[in-house]
Amino acid sequence: MHSLSDGCDFPRQVPPARRLASALIVAMALVSLSGCAGLRDRLPSMPSVGSLVTPYKIDIQQGNVVTREQAQALQPGMSRLQVRDILGSPLLTSVFHADRWDYVFTFRRQGQPLQQRKLAIFFKGEVLERIESDELPSEIEFVASLDNRRQFEKVPPLVATEEQLKAFQERNKVVAPQAPRPLPPTTSYPPLESAR
What's the distance, Cα to Cα, between the start and end of the chain in Å? Predict the structure, then answer.
């Protein structure tokens, strides 16, 4: 028999709810650890969580974007400065091939094939001689390939007929401003300060 004076503590009572919660946590830990190997052997057709969830991978764009419109603007005989104004600075230049500029573009997006395009500009001295390139997309095609949420439709022609122009002018006629109407007579009030 223990008394209060002999220094022994009485065992504390743990509430039943806390004991139940502790038991459940231990049971769940044991089941999850035992299920790692045994459950996988018993159910080989069940996919794992790792195969259902894939991590997000960012889009990776490298190099210079050169569109078909930009390449068509280049003409033999242009200077290096004119070419740089149209295409931007080349991605690759070589000390050993000073008369060649390379423009390379790659775009990698999760779930889509790799886009890669190359354009080589050849100079003779300071003048553009020739161009070699992969098939380049138009500006609209390039933007559509980047935007995977919406698909661009073909751009409608931006030409109006004479009837459409006349109808537009009728709908949007500019009305000449009218002269302001005179204000109605106002009530006369006594002055705020009295004259001395």
Answer: 109
